[in-house]
Amino acid sequence: MASNGKSPGMLMRNAGIFNPVLVQAVGLCPVVAMATSVSSAALLAAVSAVIITVSEFIASLFLKAIPRWIRIGIYIILGVAIVSPLMIFIEKINAPLFSSLGIYLPIMAVNSLNVLRCERFAVKISPVKALIDGLTASVGYAAVLLVCGFIRELLGSGTLFGFEIFRGRTMFGLLLPFGGFLILGFAGAALRALIAKFWPKYLDKKQPKPGSKKKAHISPEKKEYEIPALQSVPEFTADESTFTLEELDETTQEQAPTPVAEANETS
Q1: Radius of gyration (C-alpha) of the chain in whole angstroms
Q2: 3-class SS at 163?
Q3: 34, 113, 206, 221: which could form a disulfide with 27 (CB 3.0–4.6 Å)?
Q4: Predicted confidence pLDDT, tens digits, the chain (267 residues)
Q5: Computed from CA positions of residues 55, 56, 57, 63, in that sequence, does the dihedral angle turn out positive or negative?
Q6: What are the Cα distances from residue 183, in Å, to 74, 141, 203?
Q7: Distance between CA atoms of 141 and 117, rounded to whole angstroms?
Q8: How many C-alpha atoms does 8 have within 13 Å on its Cβ side?
Q9: What is the pTM for the complete model shown?
Q10: Among the residues of the chain, which ranges form H helices?
């Protein structure tokens, strides 16, 4: 696997390498159910971007000292408070599009992606970083929505933005939920191939939490005296060990072959 030797920026990490839909598999419901046209996908992308960004900023600013079991409910209340005025505004400017989205627009208030970003990242970083994190994650989510909406409208309806592009047989099945899952499968495979080519060190890695560190090694002697019932359940599985981006960069530099070594291998 080849690598360009450069570490991806925050936008590429949040929107591409750790894409919320294609890699982390969260926020799937609006994508597979309602991203059947470019217009509906763009509307869902805009609403989700506002919810995620504003919620992360507020969570980082005010919710760090609040217990976790209370924060989860607050995230949902925040989502409802943000979506409600947006729904009223959208209904006034485009009632047919608002009606076509049905129940899925208010469902955006309890999108799992919003809760994940707030709890896993926003409450552990500064408000400015939370704002950037929300924007970059929203870009990744919007990209998947728009790609799915474009392909499904073009091939499933033969239109784009409501204008007829071609007549004849269309792939009506793409407009159904299973068609959305099918497109997500191909998109996920394409993204994985891209990551394997340019950033192979990130393959099959879970996105690190802010400030995550490797757990201290416990000697066998000390482990003998521990009570198994009181041992904590590890947060990461064996193939998803916690890591920091700096550690990955250092490992890549150490393993990178020198020009002399490459010349000897070629000869």
Answers
A1: 22
A2: strand
A3: 113
A4: 455 556 678 899 999 999 999 998 898 988 998 899 999 999 999 999 999 999 999 999 999 999 989 999 999 999 999 999 999 999 899 888 888 888 888 888 888 899 999 999 999 999 999 999 999 999 999 999 999 999 999 999 999 988 888 887 889 899 999 999 999 999 999 999 999 999 888 887 777 777 655 544 444 444 444 434 434 333 433 344 444 445 545 544 554 554 444 445 554
A5: positive
A6: 34, 15, 21
A7: 12
A8: 19
A9: 0.76
A10: 10-12, 28-34, 38-62, 68-93, 95-101, 104-107, 112-120, 127-157, 177-198, 220-224, 245-255, 259-266
**What is the sign, positive or negative, of the torsion defined by CA atoms of 76, 103, 85, 132?**
positive
For residue 169, which phi and psi values (nearest 5 degrees)?
-70, 135
Cα(41)–Cα(34) distance, integer angstroms: 7
Which structure tokens are listed for 215?
Answer: 């757990």
Q: Give CA–CA dist 210/120, Å, rounded.
A: 8
Tell me the C-alpha distance between 95 and 91, whole Å: 5
Q: Rounded CA gap, 205 and 23, in Å?
A: 10
- Report the distance separating Cα 208 and Cα 265, nearest Å: 35
Determine the 3-state secondary structure of 83 from DSSP. helix
Task: Give, to the nearest 10 degrees, the angle between helix 112-120 and helix 127-157.
Answer: 160
Nearest to 34 by CA among 140, 148, 170: 148
Residue at token pair 């998109």: 187
State the residue for tokens 């408000």: 127
The four Cα atoms 244, 247, 251, 252 give a dihedral, to 10 degrees, of 60
